[in-house]
């Protein structure tokens, strides 16, 4: 996933990025056989006020992982691979939908006193 694509998804979901870090695809570490494929594209770790959110392509799906936030809850009823800290989106539109759902859950948390 290109950095601009990841930034756009977060912006459209209204999740402000404080900092963004490029990561090697954790499912397919850099390997000469994968250089020209989507699975070798970088992943992104977005630092937000809610914590770190990771996003990137995993073969045919976009993986979104929010395990380093205070939300540990499924964010969609869709029949996709998911658990309480990650979801697989089949396209950018679904990734945006899931990020919006995640933002709503994050904003619903009580503010620290």
Regions with pLDDT < 50 over 5+ consecutive residues?
A: none
Helix content: 10-25%
The span between the termini is 37 Å
The side-by-side strand order for the widest beta sheet comes to 1-2-3-4-5
Overall geometry comes to globular
Overall pLDDT: 89
Quaternary form: single chain
Number of helices: 2
Specify the biggest β-sheet: 5 strands, antiparallel
- What percent of residues are in strands? 25-35%
State the total count of DSSP E strands.
Answer: 5
Which class of secondary structure composition applies to the elements? alpha+beta
Number of domains: 1
Q: Tell me the Rg in angstroms.
A: 14 Å
- Spell the H/E element sequence: HEEEEEH
The gist of it:
The chain has 113 residues and is α+β, with helices and mostly antiparallel strands.
How would you characterize the overall build of this protein?
This protein is of the alpha+beta class. The chain is built from two helices and five strands. The mean pLDDT is about 90.
């Amino acid at each position: 996933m290109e950095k601009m694509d990841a930034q756009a998804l977060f912006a459209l979901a209204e999740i402000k990025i404080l900092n963004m870090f490029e990561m090697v695809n954790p499912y397919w570490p850099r390997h000469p056989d994968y250089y020209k494929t989507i699975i070798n594209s970088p992943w992104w770790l977005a630092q937000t006020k809610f914590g770190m959110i990771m996003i990137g392509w995993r073969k045919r799906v976009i993986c979104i992982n929010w395990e380093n936030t205070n939300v540990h809850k499924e964010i969609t009823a869709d029949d996709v691979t998911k658990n309480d800290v990650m979801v697989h989106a089949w396209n950018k539109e679904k990734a945006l939908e899931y990020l919006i759902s995640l933002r709503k859950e994050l904003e619903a948390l009580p503010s620290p006193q």
